[in-house]
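Problem: given the chain below (128 residues), write out its structure.
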Amino acid sequence: MNNKIDQLGNKISIIPLSDVLSISGNNYTLSTEKNIRSYYTINDLNFEQKLNTSDAGDIYNQNLTAIIQKNDDILRFMGQNILIILYSLQGDKIIWGSKDFPVKLKITPFISKLSIDLSRSSPIALNF
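Solution.
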């Protein structure tokens, strides 16, 4: 990425990778836009990335937790490989995920909100 992102905004978009035709940098092409969902988070987004080195090479374990208002629509993404679009405070988009290294979603329900844990492992760091 060319632009330095100082802080993430409070919006994420989720796209099933089955709808993605191609990804190149921060550009993507979709077969359909009917399955894109955007959510505004209650919490500040903190992206965590840890490097694990082994004989097989470097792997970056990447994690992000988002808290959103309770919304049953997000359940559609359970068990799917997904692509995440993160947004900076300035509105810049950051693409997270690929067909080879998809993002996985885990949902923890609470009374009036949901905790969405997003994670993936990749040999490539996400720099922003």
